Structure formats: C-alpha cells, structure tokens
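Minutes, methods subgroup
Present: GH (chair), OT, SY

1. OT presented the first of two proteins processed in the latest run. Sequence and structure tokens recorded below as shown on screen.
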Amino acid sequence: MKFMRRLALTVVITLSLGGYAWASSPTEQLRAYTDQVTKALENPTLTAAARLAAVRTVAGQAFDVTETAKRALELHWQQRTSAERGEFVQLFRDLERGSCPESASTAASRSST
C-alpha cells in the first residue's frame, strides 16, 4: 500500500512539473526532466520499483515514442499499414523501457558514490 501511495505521489508531482517545463526553452525543458530523474534516483525513501516508475514517467513526458518511432522508419513509415505501425511503436516502446532499468541503476550507483 505504501508503494502505491508513493508511486501515485511521484506521478502527480512529475505531471504537475511537466506543465511548467513546456513553457520554457528546450534547454530548460531538458534540465527540468534531468532534475526530475535525478531527484527520483537519489530519493532514499523510494523503492527501486518506484524509482523505475518515476524515471519511466519522466521519459514518457520527455519523449514522444510514436513520433520517434515514425522518424526512425522515415520513408518506410508511409509504406506500413496501421497495424504494422502500431506494432512497431509498441516494439520501440518496449525497447525504450528495456533500456531504462539498466540506465537507471547505473545512474543510481554513480550518484551514491
């Protein structure tokens, strides 16, 4: 139950800060996202799962997975059916999520030294 409360609080705080970031320059947006991730990784009260959830929330705000997947395929995107596009976006999202735990744990270990 504590985990769910912390996760919900993390998501609410992250989402509330996201509105501010969009009103600023790209550099300030990136700095705000980086600060949010750093705070989540350095928060000793969060479990590893809560940290991961917070980092994924910030990544979801910072990166438009559908647009990134579309750009990755470039000209081939138009040749794909709607179903193929959806499948590719999901695979792309899974790839991003798969790299997140390793990146988050690496960053957490660096910040603790």
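2. SY then presented the second protein from the same run.
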Amino acid sequence: MSSGTGSPAKAILYAFLVNTGIACAKLAAAIYTSSGSMLAEAIHSMADSGNQVLLYIGLRGAERPADANHPMGYGKLGMTPGITIETAVDHINRLEARIKAEHPTVGWCFIEPDNKD
C-alpha cells in the first residue's frame, strides 16, 4: 500500500483526461449508432470532466496562504465546488420533477402511453 503522498492536482488532471477521453469515445459511438442512451452517457462523462475542473479550481483556491482578511487561510474554499455541484444537481432534479408533473409523458425519455380501450 502506498504512503498516500501523491499530488491531488495530478489525480484531478488524470481524472479529467480520462473522463474527457471517455466522453469523446461515447460521443463518437452515439453519433455512429444514433443511440440516445449513448448520447446521455457522453453528456454524463462531459459533466464528470466539468466536475474535475471545479475540483481543481477549489484545490488551487484552498492552497492560498493566510492573509489579513483570512487569518485562518482559505482551506474551506475547497468545499465550494462540491456545494456548487450539489446545488446544480438539486435544481436540475427539481426542474425535471416539475416538468414531469405538468407533462407526464415528457421527460428525458419520451414514451407514448398505451391508449388501449
């Protein structure tokens, strides 16, 4: 087992590169196969890449040294990306729930209901 001395910035960079590569591969597969589910997966992987960018911004901000305005430092700034992501996901979920309540047949996947009499 390693001693855990790796760089968090390197881990974020590697995760960003891998997620971006996965997103490109999924997007190419979605275009080639015209698959809606593969397109959704590509968008999900792109969102993961965006998450890595926010994590890196938070990491860099949290590493700033203490100053007169922040005598305890900026360490808590590292939590800002997580809070931002959680808030965005919450808003998206609420919007989707409202759309589905107003229009039950509309959502991420349109399914025509059976009207058998």
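Chair's summary of item 2: Residues 8-78 form one domain.
Next meeting: continue with the remaining queue.
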